[in-house]
What we know:
Number of strands: 18
Radius of gyration: 21 Å
Strand order of the largest sheet: 11-12-10-9-8-7-6-3-13
Structural class: alpha/beta
Mean pLDDT: 92
Shape: globular
Amino acid sequence: MDFAGPIDPLTGTAASRFGLYVHFPYCLSKCPYCDFAVAVVRQVPEERYARAVLAELDTRLAAEPSLRGRTLESIFLGGGTPSLWHPRWVALVLEGVAARLKVAPGAEISLEANPSVADAERFAGYRAAGVNRVSLGVQSFEDSLLKALGREHTGTEAVAAYETARRAGFDVVSMDFIYGVHGQTRAQAESDARRAAALGPEHLSTYALTVDRESLAVATPLSRQLDKGEVVLPPDEEVVEMTKAIRDAYGEHGLLRYEISNHARPGYGSRHNALYWTGGEYLALGVGATGMLLTSGPGERPAGYRYVDLRGSDAYMRAAEEGKPPESSREELSPLELFEERLAMGLRLRSGVDWEAVCTRYGQDPEPRRKEIARLVQHGLARLEGSRLVLTEAGADVHSAISARLL
C-alpha cells in the first residue's frame, strides 16, 4: 500500500500537512555517533512512559484547543529504540492519540525498529496495533562497520529483521543506512547499497556520517574521538564517490532519489518526513522531541513557534504527570526564519521548489536572488522546471553551500 497524502503546491511532493512525532528514548546501548535524546537503562518504564506521553498530549491540547479540529495525516514513532516498547503500550498510545485527535483514513503510521530487537511476535503486535510502516535501523551489512558504529546486530540479523517484518504483514518497509564511516571503502558502501536494494524495500534512507559539532545537538563520543585524531573519516572526494555509487545502485532497482538522502519506489516516499521538508506542522511528544506549530491565521504572513522537550526521561515524566508542559525551550519563528527553512528544505527535494512563490508567501523580495539562480543554472548546479528551482545531482551534493548563498 502507498499512503494518500496532500500534494504540497510549492514542491509538488506528497506530504503530510499535520503530523505527530512520538519519541521513545530508551536503548540497550548508545551508539557513539548518536546525538539524539536517548537513555540506557536496565528497566524500561514502558507503561509509565506511554501514559506520560498521553498526559503531555492532554496538556498541549488544553493549551491549544484548536488542534482538536485538525486531522493527523502521519504518525512517526522514533527513538531511541521504539521496538523495545511492548506492542501493548504502543497500542495504548496510538489508541489514546486517536481518541483525542482525528487521524486520517490511511494515515502513514511508522515505527523505527532495531534489528537486534525484531522478533516475529513483537512485529505482529505492532501491525495489529495499527503501525503500517516499519523503518529498520540497519546502517550497514558489514559486521566490521557495524562494530565501528557501536551497533549490536550483525548483517545477518539485519536481513532476518527485514524478512520478519514482511512475514508480520508489513507491506511497506524502509531501511536506514550510514556511509562515510571510518574504515569504510567505496566498494563496501556500494555493496551495502546493492544488498539493500536487492531485498526489495519500498524506501531507503542513506545518510553520510555526521560528526561535525555544528550539525550535532550535543557532542558525541565519536565527535570527541575525531577531535583527538583517534579516528579518521574518508576524504570528502571519496564520500562523494560513495554517494554516486549508492544512488546508481538504488536507481537500478527502481528506487528513485526523491530527496537528497532518501530513495523510494514511486508512491512510497515518506509522507511524514516530507512534512519537515515542505513546511508542514507537527506535534511532538516525548523526551527531547521537537515540535513546530504555526500561529498565524489565514491571509496573514506565516509565523509560528518551535518547542523542544526535556532531554531527561525522569524529569520529562514528572513534568508530564504533573500536567506541566515538559519543555526545555520554546523559540518564536518569524516569517524570515520560516522562509529560510522553507527554501533550504525545499531544495533538498528532487522535485525542486517554486522559489518565487516561497519569497512571496514569506514576504521576501525575489529580485536580489535572480542573478545567483542564473549562475547556478549556468554552472550546471540547478535548472528551472517551470516555476520550480531544481538542484541537479551535482548541486544536490553541495546543497548546504547553495542554500547559504540564496539565503
